[in-house]
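I am writing to request your help with a piece of structural work I have in hand. I set the record out below, with my sincere thanks for your time.
___
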Amino acid sequence: MMSSSVVLTQVDLPVNPSRPRNFTIILGSNNQVSQGETTPPHRASRAVGTCSPIGRKIANPISLEKDLTDSAILLSKTIPRWFENVQNYDGGIPSDAQGSPNCGWVTAGAIWATASVSQTSPEWLDRALAWLLANTNPDGGIPIYSRGSDSLTDATAHALLALQLLGGHYDASAALSQSLVATQKHDGPWSWRATDATPSTCSTVFAVLALAVRSTVDATLDAKGEKAAQWLRSIQHPDGSVPLTTGAIGTPASTGLALIVYKLLGADQARAAARDHLLQTRAKRAWPIVIERPSGHTILRNSNAYALLGLLYDADEPSRPRICSSLRRYFESVQAASVGLEAAPGTRTWPTRDLLLVAAMSLANQDRLL
């Protein structure tokens, strides 16, 4: 039987010795935080034109059921506090929660996701951003770990998306944009790393989204995005699915992300096929995690998050019940240790980032910015 509301059980967050906390987060039928410290002090509000993570308003927002909206609001408040609690002393965000090394990729994503749900910049985010910009590589890209490690398309794009939402940082934004332009392949796509020969659909989508937002101040970037969109259309399978790379099988993660670009750039036929494929291939209201292995590095692409990001951005009224059903199932999954809020040993930060992005896209449908 399908649950009628999202119910999250009690979660005790780990304590960072540099900032002692006593967090207890309980989301029950009344969707209230029953105990927890006061919200950290925030800096002055910033002006943001939309609460969508990709810097664009949703053209035809759907009305989500109240328990889903309440859950998205709660997650948008608690997850940034979780990022703060696991933040390392120098400001970086670790990939495997508290105590593990800094990760430029995760730090960029955490800043982007947090900027998507709030008009204010908490102190921890300012510290994380300072660490990230200080660790930018000489090529202008954001490294997977810290300065000197390989620059990643995903991390560079996430950082650029974050800066566009935060405002300011004009020189840093220009450098990140130039890095993405320089690493685009001649036929349109990007690889996970610039040195990789194999193109990556997910990395390409993140780059297109970042440059699309940046194009408001640099119109020459539109041609870069359109060239990448042509490549994304060319690799789509007849069943509407989109592979992780050329010649591979279609996956829900890459299809969901490609759907955002199809919608954003007006590729209506590809968009409709991708959306229909996702809605028709749900198994128990969810999609399986998929693995991408560029140059031997294992990347877990969160299919539930990425499929929902695409569907929420391209939602319509006929698909609303199925989207809400899958969104409810995904929010229920935050009880699993792999998502982050439960903070079990070895918890990864990246699924928590993806969860916050989905909460942000959900709130974009409700036209809310906290």
Observations:
- The CA atoms of residues 110 and 353 lie 6 Å apart.
- The first helix runs from residue 66 to 86.
- Residues 1-50, 336-346 have pLDDT under 50 and may be disordered.
